Amino acid sequence: MLHINGIVMFILKRQDVEISSIQHPKTGQQVPILNYQGQTFRLISVFSAKQEEEAKAFWRDLTDNRGKACVLLEEPDRYSVWGKIRIEQISEEPQGGGVAAAPFYTQGCLLLMQALYYDIEDLLGPRQAGAFQKQIAEIFKQWKFPQTDSADAVKKLLSLDPLEATSVPSWQEHHLNTLLQELHRLGREYFGNTSFTERTIDALQDMPDAERKQFIGWMNQSRLGQLWATA
User: Fold this and answer.
1) 228 CB-near residues (< 8 Å, 6+ apart)
2) Residue 7 has what pLDDT?
3) What are the structural domain ranges in the chain?
4) CATH class of 2-92
5) Contact in structure between 65 and 48 (CB atoms under 8 Å)
6) Could you tell me the pLDDT band of residue 142, with boundaries at 50, 70 and 90?
7) Cα–Cα separations (whole angstroms), residue 213 to 83, 108, 134, 209
8) Second label for 139, Cα 20 to 30 Å away, from 94, 133, 158, 171?
């Protein structure tokens, strides 16, 4: 446990906490919840096991610059950051729950996911692309992404035109943060380095100029900008 600027910050192990989920009363979505010593925390962001320094930097930024009470959870295969919340706050949230993501943020994330998928297919072959699709489906399942509860739904998200679709999934910012971090991790696994990022980011050129600039600006507010070299 650390005290920084009067704010309590916890680094915890999996055995220290209880993780469950509750159904959002307005949306029906499952919301991941961490309980520790009578306090309740909600998932903000997820990092891979190799991203310890990034996870700790993000965790400290939330407390130093944003004044949030947060938990950093250490697990063998990942780190995750959780922000303190009262359960009744969830029921008081506006429709969509949590920090609602602007639709074009979700569109941008889908463009990046699709660009990486097709890059893998073109350069490494359909078998590797199929494996990538299964890994994406598992990420959606593990972190309870809405509207991704079937293989067909995942396949559709990899093939639809996000900019032409009448609607995109109702994802919150923690979903988008998790997806972009996991995409970067998978890209490194498939290509062995970060050379894929420039090719993937090129997909954002399809977005309207104003929305693309806002989306990149949103990425640059966190470590995502550094991760994807958008700064």
Assistant:
1) 112, 180, 184, 197, 200, 201, 219
2) 40
3) 2-92, 103-227
4) alpha beta
5) no
6) confident
7) 28, 11, 31, 6
8) 94
